[in-house]
Amino acid sequence: MTVPPYQDDVKNNQRTNYFNSPALDVSVVFRKQRRLLLFLPAIDDLLTPEEQAIRLRVRECMEKDVAPIMAEYWDKAEFPFQIIPKLGALRIAGETIKGYGCPGLSIMANAFATAEIARVDASCSAFFLVHSSLAMLTSALCGSEAQKQKYLPSLAEFKTVACWGLTEPDYGSVASALRATATKVLAVSRVMVAWQPIGLCMGVYDMCHRYLKERKQFGAPLAAFQINQEKLVPMLGNVQAMVLIGWRLWKLYEAGKMTPGYASMGKSWITLRARETVALGRELLSGNGILSEFLVAKAFGDLEPIYTFEGTYDINALVTGREVTGIASFRPAALTQRSCL
């Protein structure tokens, strides 16, 4: 589809910061506390200076242009088409593809760009992944030279938006029954999809950390209560572990050692931990945890399709199980007689 012009209403939005909340005062609890990185060891330790710059550029765009309007559009079940030119201006579509107007990003720059989009809005990250990681990558790998010349430059600038068919109406998890042909590009996309819940959980953790420091009950910040710290720390641990698993999977891919079992384990395990993380985040925000403007409820809802698409948790677990045991257990053995039960 060709993107029609839309009025850019982002500039007219009066919200001035990420969650439309006051600036975080880190001295609320400990007056001598110094500002520290929320993620230790720092995620930037895994990135080159160029990759860090790309990550920060995407974060700035998402916080400025998408965060102020995301809850409104989520409530209306509509997509904010006016942000598409903003995504195009980032020059990240096409990701690792070289030539044809594509940026030729490193794998890690691509992964963290995806995570930064999902950190603010999972719907935007799904849109970006389908357009760039699936449709554009498929065109680059499988298309003719004429098709690449015709489509990739326009797609790289988001002047044209791509779609991608993943399944068929009569089949879901029974991939072997599909009439279309699947290729190994699916393993690559499954690893990239794993960075969606990583970014989503980064945003949930950020929101909960701010909320606990700013909101007071019984005369003290919520962060001062032991039970809240006990829930916040596992969230941080999960995000750290998810990032490192995602990073390790890309290193395997770069080394040519990626297998379907590795890719499926990453996607299934990361989404399982992400489910746990957003559930803890919803508990920490109590009643506000079910309001879309506080991000966590939206993330809670957005995570369910991520847990299911690109292979359900269960199917991905079975793909890995087949690889480590040598036994496929996707379908039950045919029954030889009717059960008496």
Please tag this protein with its features.
341 residues; mainly alpha; Butyryl-Coa Dehydrogenase, subunit A, domain 1; Butyryl-CoA Dehydrogenase, subunit A, domain 3; 2 domains; two-stranded antiparallel sheet; 56% helix; disordered N terminus; flavin adenine dinucleotide binding; AcylCoA_DH/ox_N; AcylCo_DH-like_C; acyl-CoA dehydrogenase activity; flavoprotein
Describe the structure.
Residues 48-157 form the Acyl-CoA dehydrogenase/oxidase N-terminal domain. It holds the Pfam family Acyl-CoA_dh_N. Keywords: FAD, Flavoprotein. InterPro entries: ACX4-like (IPR045008), AcylCo_DH-like_C (IPR036250), AcylCo_DH/oxidase_C (IPR009075), AcylCoA_DH/ox_N (IPR013786), AcylCoA_DH/ox_N_sf (IPR037069), AcylCoA_DH/oxidase_NM_dom_sf (IPR009100). This is Acyl-CoA dehydrogenase/oxidase C-terminal domain-containing protein. The chain is mainly alpha-helical and 341 residues long. The protein has two domains: 1-12 and 39-164, Orthogonal Bundle (Butyryl-Coa Dehydrogenase, subunit A, domain 1), CATH 1.10.540; 181-324, Butyryl-CoA Dehydrogenase, subunit A, domain 3. The chain is 56% helix and 2% strand. The chain contains eleven helices and four strands; from the N terminus they run H-H-E-E-H-H-H-H-H-E-E-H-H-H-H. A two-stranded antiparallel ribbon has the order 1-2. It has a two-stranded antiparallel ribbon with strand order 3-4. Helix 3 (107-120) packs across helix 7 (195-214) and helix 4 (122-142) runs antiparallel to helix 6 (185-193). It is globular and about 65 Å long. The protein starts with 48 loop residues before the first helix and ends in a 16-residue tail after the last helix.
